[in-house]
Amino acid sequence: MSIKSSTVALAALIIAAPVTFASTAEAAGCGRASWYALTSKTASGERMNPAKLTAAHKTLRFGTKVKVTNAKNGRSVVVRINDRGPFIRGRVLDLSKAAASQIGMIGAGHASVCYQIVSAS
C-alpha cells in the first residue's frame, strides 16, 4: 500500500468514525453540582429558564435526560441537558434553580450528587 492510499484510507476511517460526546464513565457518576439562574442563551442556543428542569454538563449531548440524586438527602430530579459546564474543577453538573430546589440544595449552593442517563438524545 502506498503512502497516498494509506492516507486516503486513514482519512476515510476518521470521517466514518462516530462522534462520541461522553464516555461510559461520564454517562453516570458522582461529584459536586452547583446551580444557576441566569436568563442568557445556553450553549444549545435556547434561552436559560431558571424555572425549567435543565442542567449543564461538559460533554453529554443536548437533550439527554439525566436523573440527579442529592447524596445527602436522597431526593432526585430528572433534568434535560441544554448547556455546557460547569467550569469549576470537581463539579459535574450545573443545575437550574428549579432543579436545585427539587433536590434541596438551594441554600447550600452546591451538593454532592450522583447522576445517570434516563434517556439519550
TrEMBL record:
Specify the signal sequence span.
1-27
- E.C. no: 4.2.2.-
TM ranges: none
Q: Does the keyword Transmembrane apply?
A: no
Q: What's the short name of a Pfam family annotated to this entry?
A: DPBB_1
Top-level EC class: lyase
Q: Does the keyword Oxidoreductase apply?
A: no
A molecular-function term among this protein's GO annotations: lytic endotransglycosylase activity
Keywords for this protein: Cell wall biogenesis/degradation, Lipoprotein, Lyase, Signal
What domain of life does the native source organism fall in?
Bacteria
GO BP, one example? peptidoglycan metabolic process
For this chain, the family text in UniProt reads:
Belongs to the RlpA family.
Checking HAMAP family in the record gives:
RlpA
Known function: Lytic transglycosylase with a strong preference for naked glycan strands that lack stem peptides.
Q: What protein name is recorded for this chain?
A: Endolytic peptidoglycan transglycosylase RlpA
